[in-house]
Request: fold
Amino acid sequence: MKSIKRILTLIAIGFITFGAVEVKAQCAACAAAVESNHKSGATATKGLNHGIVYLLAAPYLAVVAVGLIWYKKYRRKDVKLDIPHERLNLN
Reply:
């Protein structure tokens, strides 16, 4: 079971790493500045796009890290459920 989980994890990481699509994420002011900069021949557009995507991904990675730590810390392994077989009196 662990080997299957490990293989699936590696496949998922491979898809995330090698299946990445270039995105264009810019605000209006950044887009105007980069557009005028690009017309003049500068190559700052790719760097700015990568920086914006990096800053966009950071909060999501932080939430995933906190969730993973929380899950690992608070999950219980040996939980015994003692459910008595008694009649339930609703009066």
About this structure: Residues 23-74 form one domain.
